[in-house]
Amino acid sequence: MADWDDPVGELMTQFPGWHIWRSSAGRWWATRTGKVLRRMDLGTGRVMTLDADDPQALKTQLIAQERLDLETDS
């Protein structure tokens, strides 16, 4: 199971505002922590939870969410 934990830890370090895990079905998930999106934020492409097939695909989505957060929050 260590091979599951290392990518999770790396992603959580890179994206501290997200809780990241791998499901027993092998999907990769991330959900925001400490930040609730407003209803109007959801129309901008921002989401509370992401899922992906692998850690790299999840990282790509997390980067996109960070960019949207910067655009919307500024």
Give a written overview of the molecule.
The protein is α+β, with helices and mostly antiparallel strands and 74 residues long. The protein has one domain. The chain is 49% helix and 19% strand. It has helices spanning 2-14, 39-42, 55-73; strands at 18-22, 28-32, 49-52. The chain has a three-stranded antiparallel beta sheet with strand order 1-2-3. The chain starts with a helix and ends with a helix. The mean pLDDT is 89.
Task: Write out key terms for the chains shown.
single chain, 74 residues, alpha+beta, 3-stranded antiparallel sheet, globular
Spatial order of the strands in the main sheet? 1-2-3
Biggest sheet: strands, sense, closure? 3 strands, antiparallel
- Total separate domains: 1
Q: Report the order of strands and helices.
A: HEEHEH
* Class by SSE composition: alpha+beta
Question: Nutshell version of this structure?
Answer:
This protein is an alpha+beta fold and 74 residues long. The chain is 49% helix and 19% strand.
Topology:
Blueprint: H1 2-14, E1 18-22, E2 28-32, H2 39-42, E3 49-52, H3 55-73
Antiparallel strand pairs: 1-2, 2-3
